[in-house]
Amino acid sequence: MSTLLTVKDVAQIMRCSEDKVIRVFAPMDGVIDLGKPENLSRRRYRVLRIPKQVVERYLTKRAGRSVEIEIPERAERRRRSSRWEHRAILNLAKAAVQNECKDRNILRRIAVRARTLTLVPESLWSEIEWFECDEEE
Predict the structure, then answer these.
(1) Which of 7, 42, 83, 90 is the most buried (most CB within 10 A)?
(2) What is the pLDDT of residues 27-71, one digit of tens each?
(3) What are the extents of the domains in the chain?
(4) pTM score, two decimals?
């Protein structure tokens, strides 16, 4: 079975709006629409799951050559919790241990950059390039 992608995933891969992804992929065979149908009092609510193969087939047709896509990494989604800070600390510590990082400056830089990202819409995070320079707090 093919991996199912969200509209947001496909928009990120194609670098276009989520509305465009819905317009292009909603009528295609193989796309799963989990949304609610339109009725007289409300507009249609679309929730699509798009198989990776469908996206690759579409991009191959448009490019005129074989295209294979890489699925973007998703941040782990968690419900709001009073213990979110504790979990974030554990996740950072785990990443540091896995990467054998004991450098205090690197951990500080990660914290500063994470704080900076909170000021930017999540949809733009993949566009940000960090420059290696001494950062001051």
Answers:
(1) 7
(2) 999 998 887 776 666 666 778 999 999 999 999 999 899 888 888
(3) 4-63, 84-127
(4) 0.52
